[in-house]
Design a protein that fits this description.
Protein name: Signal recognition particle protein
Radius of gyration: 22 Å
Organism: Polynucleobacter hirudinilacicola
EC number: 3.6.5.4
Bound molecules: guanosine-5'-diphosphate
Family: Belongs to the GTP-binding SRP family. SRP54 subfamily.
Order of helices and strands: HHHHHEHEHEHEHEHEHEEH
Strand order of the largest sheet: 3-2-4-1-5-6-7-8
Strand content: 5-15%
Subunit structure: Part of the signal recognition particle protein translocation system, which is composed of SRP and FtsY. SRP is a ribonucleoprotein composed of Ffh and a 4.5S RNA molecule.
Distance between the termini: 10 Å
Structural class: alpha/beta
Shape: elongated
Oligomer: single chain
Number of strands: 8
Length: 299
């Protein structure tokens, strides 16, 4: 079991032996504990470093120094700081942007196994039930027939419409045919699933860039597995450099990861987190909540 931040800081406060106030020395000790807590939660090192600078500045400010329980006050500062980073600019809506001439195209990007196909199913369900939208799904993964079948299965499971494709077609042709079908049949949203690789790969990036250019999606969602931990940052960077991402879905938060990837990915790309995956099943999708994620990261 990882020690949570409140316990860590209370431990430091106890050793302060009645010093009610924070000093340079005991602040340094507390910052060390905060650093460890963030690293254990899988927040990437450069992100931890820049965060600590900001926290240090605030920790030595009135709010914490004058407080009767500096440990508790410091936890509050850290929590607010993390939530603030993940919330970002309040003008950026956490919801899916569908404000366009229908059909609104949503392009999914991410490595193989990240949870793209599952997330397409979950989003289709969410869009139908919560937003009353008519949803078409399509798979441009021409490398794995099983991926196309998997998308068909989840789409049928949630009662949306599936646009068939096969491995002999070109991803771009599939995407354009699906878009044409969606236009002619008055779909509100087209969810486009794409191929993923096990690692970042030039050919994969070019393929998804081509798809992006021809589809002109209103949302390009980067799907990333929370269990990737520190590696999530490099993957996010690579996809962000290749594509104008508009949102992130962080999956598999039902696992035991603390979710530090949420913070790292947000800090490194500046792209808002929109949803989290909390189960394999189709209702396992929740809107992203920065406050809750900050609490989770701190344990
Ligand atoms: P893709 O290769 O990116 O399309 O990934 P998939 O959608 O096929 O997902 C890979 C695996 O992760 C599958 O076994 C999914 O059931 C599982 N998965 C996806 N999202 C979640 C989630 O939020 N929680 C859990 N526990 N499993 C998930």
């Amino acid at each position: 079991m990882l020690e949570n931040l409140t316990d860590r800081l209370s431990r430091v406060v106890k050793t302060m032996r009645g010093q009610a106030r924070l000093t340079e020395a005991n602040t340094a000790e507390m910052l060390r504990e905060i650093r460890l807590a963030l690293l254990e939660a899988d927040v990437a090192l450069p992100v931890v470093k820049s965060l600590l600078e900001q926290i240090k500045f605030k920790a030595l400010g009135e709010e914490v120094v004058g407080s009767l329980s500096p440990g508790q006050a410091l936890v509050g500062v850290v929590q607010r700081e993390l939530a603030q980073i993940m919330m970002g600019d309040t003008n950026q809506s956490g919801e899916l942007n569908l404000a366009t001439q229908p059909p609104a195209v949503v392009l999914m990007a991410g490595l193989q196994g990240a949870g793209k196909t599952t997330s397409v199913g979950k989003l289709a369900k969410w869009l139908q039930e919560k937003k009353k939208k008519k949803v078409l799904t399509v798979s441009c993964d021409v490398y794995r027939p099983a991926a196309i079948e998997q998308l068909e299965t989840v789409t049928k499971q949630v009662g949306a419409e599936f646009f068939p494709s096969n491995v002999n077609q070109k991803p771009n042709d599939i995407a354009l045919a699906a878009l044409d079908w969606a236009r002619r049949h008055y779909f509100d949203v087209v969810l486009v699933d794409t191929a993923g690789r096990l690692g970042i790969d030039e050919a994969l990036m070019q393929e998804i860039q081509t798809l992006h250019t021809s589809l002109n999606p209103i949302e390009t969602l980067f799907v990333v597995d929370a269990m990737l931990g520190q590696d999530a940052v490099n993957t996010a960077k690579a996809f962000h450099e290749a594509l104008p991402l508009t949102g992130v879905i962080l999956t598999k938060l039902d696992g035991d990861s603390r979710g530090g990837a949420a913070l790292s990915v947000r800090q490194v790309t500046g792209v808002p987190l929109k949803f989290i995956g909390v189960a394999e099943k189709m209702d396992g999708l929740e809107s992203f909540d920065a406050q809750r994620m900050a609490n989770r990261i701190l344990g």
